[in-house]
Please model this.
Amino acid sequence: MIAKCTVSFKGTKLLEAWGRIPLATTEPQGRCCFHRSTPRETMAWSESVDTLLANKDGLAAFRTFLKSEFSEENIDFWMACEDFKKTKSSAKIASKAQKIYSEFIQADAPREINIDFTTRDHISQNISEPTLKCFDDAQRLIYSLMAKDSFPRFLRSEVYKELVNKQQNGNQKRWLPFL
Model:
């Protein structure tokens, strides 16, 4: 069955998409496309930022939260760096590095991340011959910022609390297919 899934907070729509809801499954029925994780998995997100980022649904929820705070460039940069580190082709390394640099690092980049001058300058000096480790210092800084600042706010947010409550209620109200 296909259904429209929406996550909203105080009347503001945060996420909306069309998703497939299973009609018959051995799991509790009715997890919508934003709630594929079990309530136990969702609660586990609070253990660490690593646990959150390792879970596809956790990552999506965290990104939505960061977007609501106008700081999604941090998670997007982190994800771009994770993808970049998996690059095998030297031609692709250069082109991906340039894309990350122009989008997130260079002065006045459209989605400029907040890093110190020394880190930015070091990357700028070495971008002409990038390596798979060229963004590591910046990625560590952004990770630290998210772990120490954004992640605790996410856990205290109504968005996260509402998501946990919806999932817990969904397990109790299995007759409602959208919860």
The longest strand covers residues 12-20.
